[in-house]
Structures are given as structure tokens and as C-alpha cells.
Design goal:
354 residues; Rossmann fold; GMP Synthetase, Chain A, domain 3; 2 domains; seven-stranded mixed beta sheet; 27% helix; globular
Amino acid sequence: MVKSSRRELLATEQGWSIPQVMAALAGAIEGTGPALGFGSIASTEVPEEIALVVGTSGSTGDAKEVALTRAALLHSATESNRYLGAEIGDSWALSLPLTHIAAVNVLLRAYLLKSQPVDARTSHKPADFTAIVPTQLFRALNGDNELLETLIGMKSILVGGAALSDDLYQRASDRGVKIVRTYGMSETSGGCIYDGAALPGVTFTLESNGEISIGGKTLASGYLRAGQLDATNFKSGIFRTRDFGKLENGKLQVLGRVDDIVITGGENLSLDLVESVLKDFLKSEECAAFTVADPEWGAALCIATTHEVDKEKISKLLEESIGVHAKPKRFLLVAEIPRTSIGKVDRRRLGVIE
């Protein structure tokens, strides 16, 4: 790790107003103020070239501080606005907590459009564009009519952060919600693949095992460790995402996390694939697959739902769709599926509940 000139890192606070955040963001991007930190940040200074730091635990649970330059962030925001046809003066609604890159990107896109973000975190407000997670879309289609009408009135909705099932996508599209599927993470300045295609200046490849690697102009500089930049995970300008994918008609289809492949009864099983089959069958996002330690199976597949289901039908469906090793060993009825703040299923908590 090579030391460079330093700048202060200022952590945003939960009580800040949108104008306060936007003023600090402008200073961080333009170099007239300290770098800005979002989420859980321990560092207090960064290399001079770093504009923003996003604290994330990703899918591994290990806290990371992702360091992003002005160039990477502005390229991401510029190409996103261009893809959507956004023009100066168009508005973005902030619908996610500011602890995540998807929300930070909303601010950056608004900054480039010279508009003030609409704060829609606690109440639904109209705007031209927004970014949400599949859980929010599911709620809009299952009782939150005010949110649904707000989404229908927008020019485009970015949906990412977690897998969006084909059924949910189709139901929303049939109601007039104009969806763009996005894929990315904090390490790529957020979503950088839209509707299966890389934004200009972004590249992706599939490794021999199907793992997705991303490179290009939106890539983070590395992780901060005690304030120093560590680019070990970004060798040769490439970041291995630990997500599996495949190409279908030239478009990237994300299949699930490397971390979500479990071994049960000596067979590899994708929990994401199990959930995808379940969601299409149940026509619901309120289900999850997880495992618990088991002396016979090693990892026993469990299914959690928020309503009673036909266990025999589900067992047969999974066995026929995936294989005999995908037959659930236990079912769990819960009041709600525990999720992270970005909407991903929290499988660790399900394991504890079980």
C-alpha cells in the first residue's frame, strides 16, 4: 500500500436534511470539501483522489469500506442518466436509505441534472425517476396502491439490489410500471449493467466457473483498511463479484451468489435457484430458502413462508425442477421474511429463528 496525500473523510449523519447531504456531496465531488462517507465508516481520512466511501457488509457479513473516485461516480451517474433519457431539471426520488450505494447514486444523478432529490423515504412522492428494490415493488403490487400509482407515473424505475423474479417484473409491467433491471454493487459504483447490457465504459466477463467479473470506468479504487487503500480485490482493473451468471440472447442473466451454493447430501444446491422456482410457483416474494446444520445432510434445506403452503406440492416441484437433493427437509412459517435494509433475504436470521 502506497501512501498519497490525504483528505478528511466526513461521515454523513442520519439526521441530515437532503439539502445538507447535497451540499456536502457537491463539496466532496468538486474537491472543495472533505470526502463523504455513507453507512458504517470507521476511517477518518482517505487518499486525496477518493471522493466517497460506502460502508457495506455485502453478502459475506464482513464490514468493508468501499473507496470511490470522483471519476468513477460521475461516469456511473452520467451513463445512467443518458440510458434513461434524463434531462436537466428532471427529478429523482430518494426511496432507499442513504446507507447504500443505490441511494447515493440517486443523489449523484440529481446533482448532474441540477435538481434537488425528492425525499420519498417515508412517504410516496412523484418524480421522474427512482431506484427501488424488489421488496418495494412487491408491496406496491400487493396493497400499497399509493406507491403503485406513484411508480406508474414515473418515466422509469431502476430495480436492483436483489433478484427480481420474472413474475414480479411481468405483473408490474402489466400495470404500467416502466422497469429497468439493474445489476451492480458498491464496488462498481452501483448498478452498471442495465437490462442485461453493460453501460458504456463498463465491461463484464464470465469466468470458467460462471462467476461474473466486472471492469471499466465505474470500478472502485479498493477497500479502505485503517484509512489506507487496499486494491488487492481489484487486480488488473477487474472485480470478481462472487455472483454466478450466464448469457442469454447476448444479455447477462444473474443466477445467484457463489456464497449461496450449499452442499446438501453431497450435492451442490443454489438457494437462489430454489427461491426463484418458489416465487414463480407461489406468485409471491414472501418466501425464502435457507439451511441449518444437520448430521445426516450436512446442510438441511429449509423453506420459510409467510403463509401456509402445500408442502407436498412444493417438495415435488423442487425435486422435479432441480433434483432430489432440492427436496426441503423442513418448513418454517414466519410473520415476515427477515431482510437486510436493501431488501435481500437475511438467511442468517432465518437460521436463528428456526
